[in-house]
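> call design_seq(struct)
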């Protein structure tokens, strides 16, 4: 049985959007292994879905929403909140901070990524969607199911928090 998703095969969708969804899952979970699980669950849901997509932007927005829900479920899970895997928190954070997912980052980018990791998810996600993914505030409000004004407020506050963190590092 061959399925198409906005005119693409399942394999083509994975090839086109895997990097995008992986990065977003890493941003939202702050845990590389959890991000892999959320990524995998997102594409399993796509495979099982019978949804028809109007175009590739509709598909991309759907994948993003499913990935975000998967990451939210990860944060709500009993295991995540209550089970220690035997690593001290400082050591675990150090491992996460040293992880660049196989990418070579220049010094400025690495400083920015570390600063972004220090602000709360609600600000980090709108900053990443706005600046990295280049979504408009209206598109972000649709994706995150927030009002446009809430998105604008979070962008402003996120910028301020990010600036304070960056000022301390310089």
């Amino acid at each position: 049985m061959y399925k198409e998703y906005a005119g693409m095969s399942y394999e083509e969708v994975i090839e086109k959007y895997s990097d995008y969804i992986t990065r977003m899952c890493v941003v939202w979970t702050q845990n590389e292994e959890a991000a892999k699980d959320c990524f995998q669950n997102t594409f399993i849901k796509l495979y099982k879905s019978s949804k028809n997509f109007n175009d590739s932007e509709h598909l991309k927005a759907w994948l993003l929403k499913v990935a975000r829900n998967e990451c939210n479920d990860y944060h709500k899970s009993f295991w995540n909140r209550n089970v220690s895997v035997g690593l001290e928190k400082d050591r675990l954070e150090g491992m996460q901070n040293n992880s660049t997912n196989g990418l070579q980052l220049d010094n400025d980018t690495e400083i920015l990524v570390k600063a972004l990791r220090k602000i709360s998810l609600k600000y980090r996600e709108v900053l990443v969607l706005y600046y990295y993914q280049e979504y408009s505030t209206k598109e972000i409000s649709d994706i995150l199911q927030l009002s446009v004004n809430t998105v604008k407020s979070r962008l402003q506050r996120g910028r301020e928090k990010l600036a304070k963190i960056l000022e301390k590092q310089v």
